[in-house]
Amino acid sequence: MPTGYLGPTMPEHKPEPSKQPARSAEPSQARPEPDRGPGPEPDPGAGLDPAPDLAVAACLDEVAEMVRASSMHSLQWYRRLDRIDNKSVAGFDPVTEADRAVESKLRAMLGHRFPGHAILGEEFGLSGRGRYRWIIDPIDGTRAFITGQPMWGTLLGLQDRGLPVAGWMHLPVLDETYVGHDHCELRAGGSTTTITVSATTELTDAIVLCTHPSMFAPGPEADRFGALAAAAKMVRYSGDCVNYGLLAMGLADLVVENGLADYDIVPLIPIVEAAGGVVTDLAGRSPVGGGYVVAAATPELHAQALAKLADPLTPPGVGGL
Questions:
Q1: Given the DSSP bridges, would you call strands 125-127 and 132-140 parallel, antiparallel or unpaired?
Q2: 95 and 142 Cβ atoms separated by less than 8 Å
C-alpha cells in the first residue's frame, strides 16, 4: 500500500433506518497438507448439478471485484447506524441493515454469474444445491462494526463437493482484499502482492491472536488456552477475520478460536493454506463445520499448539473440545 494511504472516503449521506424486522512471496518449501479426516459428505444434489466444471483460477479476479463492491457498500452505515437488531433469544447476536444489504448484493451477483451453484449466507440461509457452494459472511465482526472499530470484513468462500477451494476477504475500512487459491494475494492501493506465512516453529517465539478469551468455556478449556497463551511470546485480542489475514501476511504466527460457524471459517481456510499455513480443528481435521479452530504458520508450531490445547483424557485423533 502506498505511503500515506488512509483508506476509503466515507460517504456523506445517511441511509434511511431499516424497516426490515429482526431476523431470528511463494513459500520456499511446500507445506504438508493437514489431515482432513474423512471430510464432509458431498451435497446430495451434486449429481443433479447442471453446472460444468468451474475453472476457479480463471474467476478469482472477477469474484474479488464482486466481494469488494458488496463489502464497500457497508461503509454507508459505518459509524452511522440507526438500528441494531438482535438475532438471539438468550443472548446478544447483533445484525444490522448493513449485514443484510451486503449479503443481498453479493448473492445477486453470484446468482447471476453462477446460476447452477448453491449459496449459503449467514443472514438468508441456503438457496440451491449442487457440487459448488458459495459461503457468505457479509460482515464478520459485527460487534466491531457496530462499535465503530475497523477490524471487520466481508468473507466469501467456495466449496467444491464440500471442500474449501478458494477464499476471499475484503476489509472495507482499509480497502484491502485477500484472495486465496493456489497462492495467496493481498490487493491494496492498486497493487497486488503475494503473501506467505512466517517461518516460526516454536510456541515461545509465536505471536498469538484471538478475538476474545470468552470464546473458551470456563474451566479446563479456558485453562488450556491460558497455558498456551502463557507459553507464547505475545497474545493480542480482538480482530475477528482480520486475524487470519495477519497470519497469512506473516505478521502473526498462530490464531486460536472457538465457537465459530461454518461461514466464519470456510472462506478463511483457503487464504491461510494458500499462504503456506495449517488450519484444523483440535483433532487435526479441516474445520469446515466451524467450532474450534487452530491456524498456524508452520506444521511444527501447529503441533505444539494442539499439544497444549489437547484434553489429556481424549486420545489423539479421536476428538477434542
A1: unpaired
A2: yes
Beta bridge partners of 256: 294
What's the maximum distance between 2 C-alpha atoms anywhere in the chain? 57
- pTM score: 0.82
Q: What is the pLDDT of residues 225-279, one digit of tens each?
A: 999 999 999 999 999 999 999 999 999 999 999 999 999 999 999 999 999 999 9
Q: How many separate helices (H) and strands (E) can be counted in the chain?
A: 8, 15
Q: How many CB atoms lie within 10 A of CB 20?
A: 11
Domains and CATH numbers, the chain: 55-194 (3.30.540.10), 203-309 (3.40.190.80)
For 7, the grid coordinates are 483508506
Retrieve residue 191's grid coordinates.
Answer: 497493487
pLDDT per position as a tens digit, 125-183: 999 999 999 999 999 999 999 999 999 999 999 999 999 999 999 999 999 999 999 99
R_g of the chain computed on alpha carbons:
19
**DSSP-assigned beta bridge partners for residue 94:** 86
